[in-house]
Specification:
alpha/beta, Rossmann fold, six-stranded mixed sheet, three-stranded antiparallel sheet, 20% helix, binds guanosine-5'-monophosphate, binds magnesium ion
Length: 186
């Protein structure tokens, strides 16, 4: 069985496991400082945020409520196709709540802008977003996250929750796969 650390499909490691852990700990401190003793409603965007969400959440000291939404995925590709859809909605009442939406990566901006527009209709007291990764060069819809782990160049990445056709989510680092594994040139 290949090691998670030196997976044969990985072309290069963009962000090491150690750097991710250090930065997530810092992000948790930034979020804690921004909310102080406020109860926070955390909404994770599944599945990509799952590893990041878990690590961030267990570092937050304030009272939290957790919910999630499922947005449309890339399926087996590396490019977003068509309009984004919310497949499974959150369940907690968010009216009057301080909401933090957590996602793995901000790319074109379509997913987070749709989710934020949707949540705003429920009249939260405040709404902010936190992403592990940001690819500003690829934005199609103007969108800025409030908390960003790392800005990265335009490359399709996997690991630490991010997948390619549902694989590689368990890699401990953020990595670029060997080009022959991707079906279409970007
Ligand atoms: P956006 O709507 O901002 O274009 O895309 C956001 C979603 O696309 C992310 O939540 C993520 O699921 C997916 N995505 C965008 N870029 C990448 C990438 O480089 N790798 C992976 N695995 N998913 C990505
Ligand atoms: Mg996603």
């Amino acid at each position: 069985m290949p090691s998670r650390r030196t997976h044969p499909d990985v072309e290069r490691v963009l962000i090491s496991e150690a750097r991710i852990h250090r930065r997530v700990a810092e992000l948790a401190r930034e979020v804690t400082h921004a909310y102080l003793n406020t109860e926070l409603s955390v909404v994770g965007v599944l599945n990509g945020s799952i590893v990041f969400l878990g690590e961030l959440l267990h570092r937050l000291p304030m009272p939290t409520r957790l919910d999630s939404v499922v947005a449309s995925s890339y399926r087996a590709g590396t490019v977003s196709r068509g309009p984004v859809e919310i497949y499974r909605d959150f369940r907690l009442p968010l009216r009057g709540r301080h909401v933090l939406v957590v996602d793995d990566i901000l790319d074109t901006g379509k997913t987070l802008s749709l989710i934020c527009k949707h949540i705003r209709q429920h009249r939260p007291a405040s709404l902010r977003t936190c992403v592990l990764l940001d690819k500003p060069a690829r934005r199609l819809v103007p969108f800025q996250a409030d908390f960003v782990g790392f800005k990265i160049p335009d490359a399709f990445v996997v690991g630490y929750g991010l997948d390619f056709a549902e694989r590689y989510r368990n890699l401990p680092c953020i990595a670029v796969l060997k080009p022959q594994l991707y079906p279409h040139p970007r």
